[in-house]
C-alpha cells in the first residue's frame, strides 16, 4: 500500500483510494465502512471503505476476508493483496486522520469530538464513492455511538441507499471485513514508517501497540516527553494518558481563563499582576517613600497622579 501522499505531510489528514472498477459504475453495489486506530494514543486513525457489486458478494466472501482484529499482521497483508488483485470488481478508499488533526479538533474552542470526527470521515468516504460514480445501493457500517441514531443520520444523508449499522459489523458482513482490513493495513504501515518532523535523533520505534495500557507505549511516552515542547506530533496530546504525563513531568504552564482577570490569576499564583500597578493608592503613585516603592518616572515627569473623586 502506497502511503506516499500522507507521508509527505503527516500533520494533516489525507485521502487515498484505488481505481474505481468499471463494473462498479454500472452495477448496483454494496459498501462497507470500518476504522482502525480509534483508541491508541499514538499514530493516526484510519477510516476505510470497500465496495463491490452486489452480484459479486460471493466472490468477495471467497477471498476469506475477516475482521482485521482476529487476524495476524501477515494475514491482513496477504488478504489486502488479494483485495488489490481483485481490482476488476473491488475498490477501496481511505481517510487517514493524523494524530495532530485528532488532538487539535478535540481541544479547539468549539469542541469537535471523536465521534463527530468519525461520522464525518465515514460520510465523506461514502460521498467520495458516489462522486466517483459508484452505484451504491447498500451501505454496511460498524457503529460509532448508538447504532439506531447513527443509521438514521446516514439514511437521511443518503436517501435511496439502504443503510445498515450494526455493532461488530466487521465480523458480520464481508464487505465491512474488507474495509476493516484496508484500514488496519494502512494504519500499520503509517505507524511503522512514521516520519518524525521533530529533530529527535535516532528514534526508538519500539513503541508497542500505541494503546495507553501497553507498558512499551507508556515507556516510550515518558522517554520522548520534552519538558518544554511536549510531544512530537506522532502523539495524540489530547488523550488523557498524554495529558497526565505532561502535567506530572513537563514544565507547568498557566493559561488564564477568559473569565479570570489578571488580579485573580496573579493572586492564585502568588505573583504580582501588571494591573496591580494601577490599583495603588495616590500616595504610592506620587512616590511616597512610605509605600516602599517609587512611582514610575512616566508619571512623575508628567506630574500625573491618581484621583479618587472628580
TrEMBL record:
- Annotated signal sequence range: none
Q: Catalyzes what?
A: Endonucleolytic cleavage to 5'-phosphomonoester
Q: Which UniProt keywords apply?
A: Endonuclease, Hydrolase, Metal-binding, Nuclease
Molecular function as annotated in GO:
metal ion binding; RNA binding; RNA-DNA hybrid ribonuclease activity
Gene Ontology cellular-component annotations: ribonuclease H2 complex
Cofactors per UniProt? Answer: Mn(2+); Mg(2+)
* Annotated cofactor note: Manganese or magnesium. Binds 1 divalent metal ion per monomer in the absence of substrate. May bind a second metal ion after substrate binding.
Q: Reply yes or no: does the keyword Nuclease apply.
A: yes
Q: Which residues participate in a divalent metal cation binding?
A: 34-35, 142
Gene symbol here is rnaseh2a
What is this protein's name?
Ribonuclease
